[in-house]
Every structure is written in C-alpha cells, then in structure tokens.
Amino acid sequence: MRKVLASLIVLILVAAGLAWWLTAPDPLDPEVTARLTGDAEHGAAIFNAGGCASCHAAPGAEGEARLELAGGRAFASPFGTFHAPNISNSDTAGIGAWTTADLANAMMRGVSPAGRHYYPAFPYTSYAKARPQDIADLRAYLATLPASETPSRAHEVGFPFNVRRALGGWKLLFFRDDFVLEEVNSDELARGRYLVEALGHCGECHTPRNGLGGPKRDMWLGGAANPSGEGRIPNITSGGLDWSEGEIAEYLASGFTPDFDVAGGEMAEVVQNTAQLSPSDRAAIAAYLKAVPAVK
C-alpha cells in the first residue's frame, strides 16, 4: 500500500509539473523586435486600424480627449467584468516605460512585461497576426500621446477565472496565429484580411464563442451574442449582410447604411476609427467581407 501511495504521489507531482510547464507564458524571441525602429506617422494609421481609442479612451471622451488613453471602460462577460487599462504615455500609471518588445509580447503573445498571462478580453488572439514592424510603429506613435496618471482598475473576475496561470491552458486550446481565410488571390484581399483578422480584430465581437470563450472559427464573423447580455452582434458575412462592397466601404467612412440609418452603439466608435483609414483600406475590408465564407 505504501508503494502504491508513493507512486500515486509521484504521478501527481509529475502531472502538476508538466501542467505548470505547459501553461507557462511564451514570450517572443527577443530577436523579433531587436532591430526595429518605429515610424510614428505610420503608427497613427495602425492606431486607427486597431481601434485602440475605442477601448482605452476614458468613458465618454470625445475629440482630442480620446487620445488620452486613461482606460477605465468596463466590458461585461460571462467570466466577469474586465476593465480596459491605462495605456497612456505615463511611466507609472500607463505604458510609457514599455519597450517595443514589451508591446509586441503583449499584443502578439498576451504576455505582460512582468511575464504574466493577459486575459483574452485584450484581443491578442487577433493581434498575434500583426507584423512586428507595425507594432514598432504603433509604439512610436503611442509615445507621442499625452500621459494620464489615472490608475488602471482591477478586473472583477472570481475563482477559477482569476487564476492567471490557467490562461496558459486556454491558450493551448484556442490561441492560434494563422489566418482564417487561408487563400487570397489579390493584394487588396490580402490587405483586407490583415485589417479585419489582425489589426481590426473584427472577429473578436462578430464571431460566436464556445462555453470556454474560444472562437468558433467555422462560424467566422457569423454573428454572436453580446457578452453584456444585451442584444446580438450581427452576422457580417454575405450570409447575413447583403450590402455591396461600395456600400460597406461607405458605411465604414460615414456610418450611414444603405437604408439611410446610422451606426450606433459600439459600432459608432468603430466607424470613428475606420473613417480615418484610407479609401483603399476601407475598400479592402469590404472586399474581404464579401470573400469570407458565408454563414447562414
């Protein structure tokens, strides 16, 4: 009996050690960003494409105040309420002291400068497809924005979801850096794919999720329940959206629909960002949405 008990203890310890190793944060190789120099002007375009202000500006901020990224916006979900952090240029309250490598690890691997997992409420599952140079450019642009000393609010997440190490298991199951639309046949479509799947992270809201919060990639952009419990986020594939490419591009520029309605709610904030993209980028997004497999 003692031998059986000892063997069982050894197995438990080995299993625990293996689980600890498998769920460890996995940062980028430092060489990925070691030689990159950021271009702040191009970084502004990345900032708009990524919709950074939509989440990280203070609630209710308008105009230039949206560039003071004090955070504080709450995002309700079945797993708890998450609060967007301060990512302003403050060295103490924000990310002013972060390097390009720090930002790249956060966005592409979901790993903090302290080596902890981020919750996927921060859409690193999409940003994982971003080009490191674009992140270096974004870091350069963020350094030009004002600092805010507003402290970041703690997430309101209960057990077991507050066990950060367990997020390593979630990443093993659901964290992928490959594109959903595998094949593209034009530069425009490749650009649209990059804007939608990576920088714009449209799938984070418009794709349904399973019980563990993992995206159902076979229903990509097919509409989803609103995590807040209010209403439904629409299907934006051709199976649910019958707008032409021109109508989609116009909506992303002006917020006006073909039916003379106007974007509202969170989408109104998205349009504030897409309106600042180039016409060719909005056209590329439209082309992608017409090319992605339809979800009925």
List keywords for this structure.
single chain; 296 residues; mainly alpha; 2 domains; two-stranded antiparallel sheet; 12 helices; 4% strand
Describe this structure in words.
The protein has 296 residues and is mainly alpha-helical. It has two domains: 28-177; 184-296. The chain contains twelve helices and four strands. It has a two-stranded antiparallel sheet with strand order 1-2. The chain has a two-stranded antiparallel sheet with strand order 3-4. Helix 10 crosses helix 12 (279-291).
Our count of helices gives: 12
How many structural domains are formed by the residues? 2
Unreliable runs, pLDDT <50, ≥5 residues?
A: none
Mean pLDDT: 93
Structural class of the secondary elements? mainly alpha
Residues in helices, as a percent range: 40-55%
N-to-C SSE string, H for helix and E for strand: HHHEEHHHHHHEEHHH
- Kindly state the number of beta strands: 4
**Ends: how far apart?**
59 Å
Sheet with most strands: strand arrangement: 1-2
Residue share in β-strands: under 5%
Radius of gyration: 20 Å
Envelope shape: globular
Largest sheet: 2 strands, antiparallel
Give a quick precis of the structure.
The protein has twelve helices and four strands; from the N terminus they run H-H-H-E-E-H-H-H-H-H-H-E-E-H-H-H.
